[in-house]
Write a structure and sequence with these properties.
Mean pLDDT: 93
Distance between the termini: 33 Å
Oligomer: single chain
CATH topology: TIM Barrel
Helix content: 10-25%
Number of domains: 1
Shape: globular
Low-confidence stretches: none
Number of strands: 9
Order of helices and strands: EEEHEHEEEHHEHEH
Length: 215
């Protein structure tokens, strides 16, 4: 039997976040997530979706003739067949990123994939799900993201940045203001005041399309 995955959607848009922000990208959104972050903007991916074979997913991705692929969710690694999907996408020659909550083991992820791993802040309501064993597995090809809901979250993120020397471990450390909870300007001013080795990340898709589905 062929490998299958439950897919919420596959679509072509601009990457709204991470180091490839602004680049045309195919998004493969897997269904399901064991976390319930209070700011989640993709709750529609918690269930439903369509069962697709790996072959069908690769064919649909190829139809867009993309350079960049983002495998996202939900939590993609909650489906074991995410691992062969990532390998197959890399083998096809794409530049592949994986958006993961940081709650699942990343050890089996193909090293060619740029893991974009969240560290869940206290304000996320899921800080207890962080799998800190993943941090030593991160490489200079990877990225770490903090979604900041408050000044307390910011201070917590700075402490983790220092504790794990994240700026020396990964390519980018990304700080993103939680929509309607912290203003982008406020977060920018905190980063500047502390001279942090991080990148302020705004969600380009929300600015361009007001976060309509399919973008």
């Amino acid at each position: 039997m062929q490998d299958t995955l439950r897919i919420t959607e596959i679509f072509y848009s601009l990457q709204g976040e991470t180091r490839t922000a602004g680049l045309p990208t195919v998004f493969v959104r897997l269904t399901g997530c064991p976390l319930r972050c209070q700011y989640c903007d993709t709750a529609y991916a918690f269930n439903g979706g369509e069962i697709m074979t790996l072959e069908a997913i690769l064919a649909q991705v190829a139809s867009y003739r993309p350079r960049y692929i983002c495998v996202t969710g939900g939590e993609p690694l909650a489906q074991p067949n995410c691992i062969p999907l990532l390998k197959a996408l890399c083998d096809a020659g794409y530049e592949v990123s994986l958006e993961t909550s940081g709650a699942m083991d990343v050890a089996a992820v193909d090293p060619r994939v740029s893991k974009v791993m969240d560290l869940k802040t206290p304000g996320s309501a899921e800080v207890g799900r962080n799998r800190y064993e993943n941090i030593p597995l991160l490489t200079p090809n990877d990225q770490v993201k903090f979604v900041i809901c408050s000044r307390e979250d910011y201070d917590w993120a700075v402490s983790k940045l220092i504790q794990y020397q994240l700026d020396q471990r990964v390519d980018e450390v990304l700080l993103s203001p939680s929509h309607h909870q912290v203003s982008a300007r406020e977060l920018a001013e905190w980063i500047i005041a502390d001279n942090l080795p991080v990148r302020l990340q705004l969600q380009l898709h929300k600015i361009l399309w007001n976060d309509e589905p399919g973008h």
